[in-house]
Q: What sequence folds into this?
């Protein structure tokens, strides 16, 4: 089981002023932040990051949303990080998300859903490498 995952505090949450509250939830859930950066994704970055969804009907809107304003990308560390972070954020659609999850508390709808979380150790590694070089990550905490 890997101990790293990749997270994004998405543009809707940053715009709504929820960056700090969500960062706090990350720490409260026991994650170490290995690196974090505020950035505005380019269209090329958003299309590349979500390439797996390129055939989906919502792809164009998703790229527009992810490039609409600043977001915060984070590399997180915890035992069983991928599964633990997915539990902390809740279901993709906030209407289906459990109580006390980040998406239940901060998401607007299925697209503007406040946060991203990797879905496997393999993708976590790829997604961290998409935004961070090795030298930008703190060594294991
Ligand atoms: P996940 O973020 O929970 O892993 P995915 O299915 O990987 O969900 O979808 C990636 C992102 O695409 C979602 O977080 C959400 O922003 C957007 N998305 C997913 N499904 C829909 C949809 O049915 N309509 C609009 N946007 C969607
Ligand atoms: Mg996904």
A:
């Amino acid at each position: 089981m890997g101990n790293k995952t990749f997270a994004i505090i998405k543009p809707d949450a940053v715009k709504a002023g929820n960056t700090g509250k969500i960062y706090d939830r990350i720490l409260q859930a026991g994650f170490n932040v290995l690196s974090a950066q505020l950035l505005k994704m380019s269209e090329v970055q958003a299309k590349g990051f979500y390439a797996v969804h390129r055939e989906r009907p919502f792809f164009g809107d998703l790229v527009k949303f992810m490039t609409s304003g600043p977001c915060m990308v984070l590399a997180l560390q915890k035992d069983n990080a991928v599964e633990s972070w997915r539990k902390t954020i809740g279901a993709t659609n906030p209407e289906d998300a459990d109580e006390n999850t980040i998406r239940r508390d901060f998401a607007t709808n299925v697209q503007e859903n406040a946060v991203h979380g990797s879905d496997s150790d393999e993708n976590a590694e790829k997604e961290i490498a998409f935004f961070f070089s090795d030298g930008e990550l703190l060594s294991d905490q």
